[in-house]
Amino acid sequence: MPKFLRIGVHQSNVSGYTSKAWCVRRTGSTIFLKWGAVEVQGTGAARKVYWSRLPQEKTIRCRTAQRAQDYAKAAIARRRSHRYEPLTGAIVLRRRPAARSPEPKQALATILIVDIVGSTAKAAKLGDARWTKVMGHYYAAVRKELKTCGGKEVVTTGDGVLATFKKPAAAISCAAAIQKAVRTLGLEIRVGLHAGEYTISGGEMVGLAFHICTRVAAKARAGDVLVSSAVKDLMTAQSAVSLRDHGMHRLKGVPERWKLYRVMG
């Protein structure tokens, strides 16, 4: 995987600064991107580069190997001309000393997953610089609505955001608010919600409820907010929320068929 480090200061005599790294890998017709903030320690051959936090990742399917190869070449050329230098060493996630705490316990919550529709085409149309600005505004808008509605951000995945809520009504209200906010940026999103138990391990959400929510979101189209029957069952006392039957669906890798509902209005 070719890696590049943004040259923020002179590399040969400065240590202990924060910069940005970017990686690209091609497998057949698929491109895998990874980028994020890094901390640089040491100089010369002793230089070490650490991810400051979990990097963002994105997968781009180019249909043909030639298109993927052309995409990778163009992406690498852009980085070389944007004050990046090739990085040969590994980039690792710095492991902090583990605090003594009890084993993580399962929690029950409404899980929300937001995903941008057509992000690859949009990024290609706008170019790296403009797309980076748009994504900055996008994450700011999402986080503002999460704070307003009492949601807790768990992780970002490329152009997606995963969050949890104590109440399903708050999650649905937040989804609607996020949709309205990001439309001003020229973006369309799809949202999936599911209620169930989950565990946070190593900064990532694990458990069947998370996978179900991911599959629910995948069934949504641009502008849709889809919820599982588990969410509907918790909404019986919330007459202000209107749900329309979206039919029975087979969720990939999930046992049985699930009934989904589309949030109206």
From TrEMBL:
Transmembrane segments: none annotated. One of its GO terms (molecular function) is adenylate cyclase activity. InterPro entries: A/G_cyclase, Adenylyl/Guanylyl_Cyclase_3/4, Nucleotide_cyclase. GO terms for biological process: cyclic nucleotide biosynthetic process; intracellular signal transduction. PANTHER family: ADENYLATE CYCLASE, TERMINAL-DIFFERENTIATION SPECIFIC, ADENYLATE CYCLASE, TERMINAL-DIFFERENTIATION SPECIFIC-RELATED. Residues 110-217 form the Guanylate cyclase domain. This is Class 3 adenylate cyclase. It comes from Bradyrhizobium daqingense. It comes from the Bacteria.
